[in-house]
């Protein structure tokens, strides 16, 4: 651990100093999960090495919409969310057939009462720079290839390459995998995906739309149809204002129980053809191609800790099965993983340190285990068969109480202890769900 002011590496540093480096903790991947973990570790005085295969800024498939939970994590990191480029949102607009409603973000004690939009093109760059400013050592353009393990199979570092350079080795007693949905490091350590858990797919595209770019609400459409049938898409479409003359338009869907995986490009085209021409959501206003990505949902990889390796964000399948949100979850998990690693490093190698590291999956299970288990069931039984449209019927859309309850359930926004009747009902429902078993390995 450091006891002096750390040397700071600029976020665009493309060189690797030497072929063999050591740190207290290695974080693989500088997305929201990895940068959050690196930031909190550096603030705790830990010598942390952050390895990122790309060079910032870079594109990332995402809706770019941040709920109050994600905003809360930005505030905890000290990000200046009042700086240019951040677009606030008052809440959500739900569209279901002929019905549409506005739902403001709740005024709770735990979270802010507003959301934000920010393109992932520079969002991840901002977080990585913030981690560096806190003392993390960032290495861009470094692709981790495999773990380095000792005789007992415990991870002690990683090997990597940078361009055409010779392979490099980085050593640390603790490694945090934040390498996204591919989860290459987890797979190399033998951690397979739970195939009983759903994997959704998302696609998005930017459009120039001055009329929609300054909207105050994140717009969600629930009445999209599965291509070539009358069945509702097991997902939803979104139109998120970017505040710069553009909107982020996309959709996310589970595989349909009967029809399988939807052709998202065709679905997107059919949907946008229904939107008013004045919105500008047509080909001549498009910026860039349609991009897609997999969304690993509901803790679909176990265990979240094994033999010196902690999984955070998409690597651990932490995207919400309720709504496909992953940024806030990634940042929160990064903070929890950082706390566990920092506490563990205060102890000597051995059983005491291991007990602390094993507390990481226990804490994540305490926070989201029941909520995700209920969401996984909802995804299997309801969303993958009929999407959101049957839930957003005229009775629900006409009831402020039911709308508030559903919105808070989908976005996991409740106070504890309960702030009001909606909180009390939702907290009670989740508490009644049996806690999942925390696997160890």
| Poorly predicted ranges | 2-18
Order of strands in the sheet with most strands: 7-6-15-16-17-14-18
Largest sheet: 7 strands, mixed
Radius of gyration, taken over Cα atoms and rounded to an integer in Å: 22 Å
Strand content: 15-25%
User: Which structural class do the helices and strands define?
Assistant: alpha/beta
| Overall pLDDT confidence | 91
Helix content: 25-40%
N- and C-termini, Cα separation: 27 Å
Task: Characterise the protein shown here.
The protein has helices spanning 32-43, 68-77, 120-134, 184-188, 210-213, 264-272, 327-345, 351-386, 394-397, 400-411, 421-432; strands spanning 20-22, 25-28, 48-51, 65-66, 87-89, 91-96, 99-104, 115-117, 137-139, 143-149, 155-161, 168-171, 174-177, 199-208, 217-221, 235-241, 246-253, 286-296, 305-306, 309-311. By secondary structure, it is an alpha/beta fold. A hairpin with a 4-residue loop joins strand 16 and strand 17 (246-253). Helix 2 packs parallel to helix 7 and helix 10 (400-411) crosses helix 11 (421-432). The longest helix has 36 residues, at 351-386. It is globular and about 60 Å long. Residues 2-18 have low confidence and may be disordered.
List the helices and strands and how they pair.
Blueprint: E1 20-22, E2 25-28, H1 32-43, E3 48-51, E4 65-66, H2 68-77, E5 87-89, E6 91-96, E7 99-104, E8 115-117, H3 120-134, E9 137-139, E10 143-149, E11 155-161, E12 168-171, E13 174-177, H4 184-188, E14 199-208, H5 210-213, E15 217-221, E16 235-241, E17 246-253, H6 264-272, E18 286-296, E19 305-306, E20 309-311, H7 327-345, H8 351-386, H9 394-397, H10 400-411, H11 421-432
Parallel strand pairs: 1-12, 2-3, 2-13, 3-9, 6-15, 13-20
Antiparallel strand pairs: 4-8, 5-8, 6-7, 10-11, 11-12, 14-17, 14-18, 15-16, 16-17, 19-20
Helix pairs in contact: 1-3, 1-7, 2-7, 7-8, 10-11
């Amino acid at each position: 651990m450091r006891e002096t002011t750390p040397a700071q590496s600029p976020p665009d540093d493309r060189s690797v100093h030497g072929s063999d480096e050591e740190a207290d903790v290695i974080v693989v991947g500088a997305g929201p999960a990895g940068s959050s973990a690196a930031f909190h570790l550096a603030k705790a005085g830990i010598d942390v090495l952050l390895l990122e295969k790309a060079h910032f800024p870079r594109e990332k498939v995402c809706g770019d919409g941040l709920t109050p939970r994600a905003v809360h994590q930005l505030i905890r990191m000290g990000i200046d969310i009042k700086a240019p480029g951040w677009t606030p949102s008052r809440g959500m607009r739900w569209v279901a057939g002929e019905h549409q409603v506005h739902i403001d973000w709740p005024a709770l004690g735990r979270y802010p009462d507003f959301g934000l939009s920010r393109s992932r093109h520079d969002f991840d760059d901002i977080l990585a720079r913030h981690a560096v400013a806190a003392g993390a050592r960032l290495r861009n353009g470094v692709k981790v290839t495999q773990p380095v393990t000792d005789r007992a199979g415990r991870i002690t570092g990683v090997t990597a390459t940078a361009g055409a350079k010779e392979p490099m080795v980085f050593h640390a007693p603790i490694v945090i995998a934040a390498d996204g949905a591919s989860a290459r490091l987890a797979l190399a350590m033998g951690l397979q995906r739970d195939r009983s858990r759903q994997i959704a797919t998302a696609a998005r595209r930017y459009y120039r739309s001055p009329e929609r770019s300054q909207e105050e609400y994140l717009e969600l459409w629930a009445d999209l149809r599965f291509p070539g049938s009358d069945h509702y898409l097991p997902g939803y479409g979104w139109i998120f204002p970017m505040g710069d003359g553009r909107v982020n338009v996309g959709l996310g869907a589970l595989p349909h129980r009967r029809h399988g995986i939807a052709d998202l490009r065709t679905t997107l085209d059919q949907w946008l053809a229904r939107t008013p021409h004045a919105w500008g959501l047509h080909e001549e206003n498009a910026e860039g191609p349609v991009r897609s990505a997999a969304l690993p949902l509901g803790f679909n990889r176990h265990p979240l800790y094994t033999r010196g390796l902690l999984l955070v964000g998409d690597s651990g399948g932490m995207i919400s099965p309720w709504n496909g949100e992953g940024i806030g979850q990634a940042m929160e998990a990064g903070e929890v993983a950082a706390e566990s690693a920092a506490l563990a490093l205060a102890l000597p190698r051995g059983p005491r340190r291991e007990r602390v590291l094993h507390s990481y999956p226990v804490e994540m299970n305490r926070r989201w285990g029941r909520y995700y288990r209920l969401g996984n069931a909802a995804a299997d039984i309801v969303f993958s068969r009929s999407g959101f449209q049957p839930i957003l019927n005229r009775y629900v859309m006409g009831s402020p109480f039911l709308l508030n309850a559903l919105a808070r359930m989908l976005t996991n926004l409740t106070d504890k202890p309960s702030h009001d009747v909606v909180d009390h009902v939702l907290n009670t429902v989740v508490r009644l769900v049996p806690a999942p078993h925390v696997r160890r390995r």
